[in-house]
């Protein structure tokens, strides 16, 4: 079985770590709350501070009138080997050892004032003090502000309730052992400490009663009814304490001598002599230490269960917000590339239909492009008047003899040039859809949410690549349009020439149709022929333009959206890679806190396993 020293020392170690990490609460029970502690509770001037100093064997606590203890003091006692030097350490200044206990008192006062100021305000932020001495037992005590019934000058009216609420926040915990200090020269029934202990621990299982000031009771009276459990029974025996008198304090009688004087008092007392072996501060310290060790051993299964539950919860949260990144350049580069691939997977899912958005590209081809083609002004360009104008200008001074070939070519070139607008609009529309899919993919890539700088860099690189793809796509679709102008399909016009013209019956005595190459009918025929040819070109481009756009933009976005970015990242130095993985400061702070807490819990579990069952 584990030794008392190892178990209590382990709990002390875990408590110190919990205090550093601020692990005092939250939803459910914190590890701090699960650890057994001893809370020292008493009214003002009940002798609470004197009891603690007697247990420690040192004069180290601030003294004065009114509220002296204004912050909880977590006092951890560590028994050392005989002959070793006594010293104290504060958790807020762990590198400094105090061997002068007057300096310890001054540090407690200064640290209290640092939080509460010079006023008489209180704070629930604890001061943690560890004392290492051969004259103590292994024990952890929490000295709480003394309960009071009235506010003094300089204190708010709420101070009475504020102190009680603070004390309750400790003693209500089921793992808190209550050390209730009551002066023997007052009625125990009116003791503030006993009254509070009865409310939070009605069975008395967690309460140890301490009667102080036995030596200054009125003559003819004693405290036997209390000490022997007849006046107010607890599950644990009452312990009587004789504090140093004010004269002893003024004479600076040391605590070791005071302990000796206390033993002599009980051994020679006619009232308490038969109880001498169970009285005094030394007995009280041993009693509390033994009980604390027993409680710790009983609570180990529940403590370990809480630790395991907390480890699982922390691991789940770390998985959600992301694990810490290694500091070497290779690991950082690998992380960046993995994050890029995660983004790329989401982007491709949008294009391929696994996520919404890619269908908008088909909408450009199926609706937007055909609608734009229908709106082209061919009716105006191929009107009889414009055909006549273009053909006449193409003929120059010599009118055409049979067919106005130059006029045809000018009309066709002019008509085909109108296709450039819808072609470029299709490129831009698809570019807009791709940019929007990049934005959505960045926001939907969970792994990138913790790295806003990298997400911004990826978005910028992806958009730059899309710009390049758009430029290439624009060149390609314009080439397709220019190709239609550069070489006309001769067979189309030959077929027109071979087709017999359907002649309408002429009115009686009317001149035959096409008798004049400059008649409106002649120019309407030319416009009709060109319109038929342009319709054929339109059908061709309606099919070929989407193919070119997909090939130059969509296909390349799937294949090489971040290729240029990969090459740039591979050439970056370690510091710049670290800058790309810069996270939200609050997220980094949260992860750091979780990592430290996880390490605390794992170490606590290992330590408990190492000592609990020896």
TrEMBL record:
Residues 32-301 form the Dynamin-type G domain. GO terms for cellular component: membrane; microtubule; phragmoplast. GO terms for molecular function: GTP binding; GTPase activity; microtubule binding. Its main location: cytoplasm. The keyword Cell cycle applies. GO terms for biological process: cell division. Keywords: Cell cycle, Cell division, Cytoplasm, Cytoskeleton, GTP-binding, Hydrolase, Microtubule, Motor protein, Nucleotide-binding. It is found in: Cytoplasm, Cytoskeleton, Phragmoplast. Pfam families: Dynamin_M, Dynamin_N, GED. Residues 523-614 form the GED domain. SUPFAM superfamilies: P-loop containing nucleoside triphosphate hydrolases. It catalyses: GTP + H2O = GDP + phosphate + H(+). InterPro entries: Dynamin (IPR022812), Dynamin_GTPase (IPR001401), Dynamin_GTPase_CS (IPR019762), Dynamin_N (IPR045063), Dynamin_stalk (IPR000375), G_DYNAMIN_dom (IPR030381), GED (IPR003130), GED_dom (IPR020850). Belongs to the TRAFAC class dynamin-like GTPase superfamily. Dynamin/Fzo/YdjA family. Forms homodimer and may homooligomerize and heterooligomerize to form the phragmoplastin complex. Binds to PHIP1. This is Phragmoplastin DRP1C-like. The lineage of its organism: Eukaryota, Viridiplantae, Streptophyta, Embryophyta, Tracheophyta.
């Amino acid at each position: 079985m584990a030794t008392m020293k190892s178990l209590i020392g382990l709990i002390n170690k875990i408590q110190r770590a919990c205090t550093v990490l601020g692990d005092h609460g939250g939803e459910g029970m914190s590890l701090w709350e699960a650890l057994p502690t001893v809370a020292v509770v008493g009214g003002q001037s009940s002798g609470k501070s004197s009891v603690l100093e007697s247990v420690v064997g040192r004069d180290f606590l601030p003294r004065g009138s009114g509220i002296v203890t204004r912050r909880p003091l977590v006092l951890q006692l560590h028994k050392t080997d005989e002959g070793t030097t006594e010293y104290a350490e504060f958790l807020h200044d762990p590198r400094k050892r105090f061997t002068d206990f007057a300096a310890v008192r001054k540090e407690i006062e200064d640290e209290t004032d640092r939080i509460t100021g010079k006023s008489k305000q209180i704070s629930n932020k604890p001061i943690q003090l560890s004392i290492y001495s051969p004259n103590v037992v292994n024990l952890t005590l929490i000295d709480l502000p003394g309960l009071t019934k009235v506010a003094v000058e300089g204190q708010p009216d709420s101070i009475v309730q504020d102190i009680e609420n603070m004390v309750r926040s400790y003693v209500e915990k089921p793992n808190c052992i209550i050390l209730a200090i009551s002066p023997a020269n007052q009625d125990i029934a009116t003791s503030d400490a006993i009254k509070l202990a009865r409310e939070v621990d009605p069975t008395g299982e967690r309460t140890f009663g301490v009667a102080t000031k036995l030596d200054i009771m009125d003559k003819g009276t004693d405290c036997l009814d209390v000490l022997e459990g007849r006046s107010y029974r607890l599950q644990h025996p009452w312990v009587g304490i004789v504090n140093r008198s004010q004269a002893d304090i003024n004479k600076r009688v040391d605590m070791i001598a005071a302990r000796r004087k206390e033993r002599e008092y009980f051994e020679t007392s006619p009232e308490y002599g038969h109880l001498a072996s169970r009285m005094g501060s030394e007995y009280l310290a041993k009693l509390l230490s033994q009980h604390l060790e027993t409680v710790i051993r009983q609570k180990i299964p529940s403590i370990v269960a809480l630790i395991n539950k907390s480890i699982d919860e922390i691991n789940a949260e770390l998985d959600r917000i992301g694990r810490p990144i290694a500091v070497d350049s290779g690991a950082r580069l690998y992380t960046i590339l993995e994050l890029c691939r995660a983004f790329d997977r989401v982007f491709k899912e949008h294009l391929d239909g696994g996520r919404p958005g890619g269908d908008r590209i088909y909408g450009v081809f199926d609706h937007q492009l055909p609608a734009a083609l229908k709106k082209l002004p061919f009716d105006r360009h191929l009107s009889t008047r414009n055909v006549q104008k273009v053909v006449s200008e193409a003929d120059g001074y010599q009118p055409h003899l049979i067919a106005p070939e130059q006029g045809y070519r000018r009309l066709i070139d002019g008509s085909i040039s109108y296709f450039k607008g819808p072609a470029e609009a299709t490129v831009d529309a698809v570019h807009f859809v791709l940019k929007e899919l990049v934005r959505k993919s960045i926001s939907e890539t969970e792994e990138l949410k913790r790295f806003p700088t990298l997400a911004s860099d990826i978005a910028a690189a992806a958009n730059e690549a899309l710009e390049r793809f758009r430029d290439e796509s624009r060149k390609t679709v314009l080439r397709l349009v220019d190709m239609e102008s550069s070489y006309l399909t001769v067979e189309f016009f030959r077929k027109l020439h071979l087709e017999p013209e359907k002649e309408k019956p002429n009115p009686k005595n009317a001149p035959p149709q096409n008798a004049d190459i400059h008649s409106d009918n002649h120019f309407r025929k030319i416009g009709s022929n060109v319109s038929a040819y342009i319709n054929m070109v339109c059908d061709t481009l309606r099919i070929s333009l989407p193919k070119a756009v997909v090939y130059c933009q969509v296909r390349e976005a799937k294949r090489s959206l971040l290729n240029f970015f990969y090459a740039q990242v591979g050439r970056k130095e370690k510091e710049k890679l670290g800058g790309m993985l810069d996270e939200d400061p609050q997220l980094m702070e949260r992860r750091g806190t979780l990592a430290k807490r996880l390490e605390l819990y794992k170490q606590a579990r290992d330590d408990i396993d190492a000592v609990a069952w020896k």
